[in-house]
Amino acid sequence: MKSGSGPSGPVQVTGASDVRAAQREGGGGGGEPRVCVDTVLGQLIVEVFTRRAPQTAANFLKYVDCRYLDSCSIYRIVTPDNQHPPAPVGVSIVQWGLHLQQLASRPFPPVPHEPTWVTGLTHCNGALSLARFAPGTGSSEFFFCIGDQPQLDFGGLRNPDGAGFAAFGQLVSGEDVLAEIYARAEEDHLLKRPIRIRAVSRLGGAGP
After folding, report:
1. What is the pTM of this model?
2. Cys staple from 141: which of 14, 15, 96, 131, with CB 3.0 to 4.6 Å?
């Protein structure tokens, strides 16, 4: 286990081999694309589960391959203590991506919601998921789970609609970097000092 310090005390981020094992059965085995999220604090390597969450994964990879996520930022770090007023159910996440208000027009339509009861994936430690408002509105903003977050799965209480969020990937390397990022949480969940992402690209180049 590797740990960093956050505003609520130590945050535990599971080692890469454990993180991979946590979603391997649900993800469908090897041969899946991997993506490097190159932040100013270091690199995060994620495996994208195109078999279990095909629409959500394809949406993410379109943003990656078209380079829309280059020079975006980590702009939100949620801890159990920094949402005002407090949310009914607290979570710990690191959110990043491209704000739609930064764009003159939406490059791709929103992706249909793929709930965890359909994909078999869960919001375990290191999971990568799609941020949204109503189901089916997610597009260009993503988040990593810090610790297991079952309230983000289908039937969880974080969102009043109970539909949960669409997990579609898993951190496989860079757990120390994710812990350091989480340790940069501020008094409010929306960062006054966003953390820059240099580039987001597939390992081995773009695929189909």
Report:
1. 0.85
2. 131
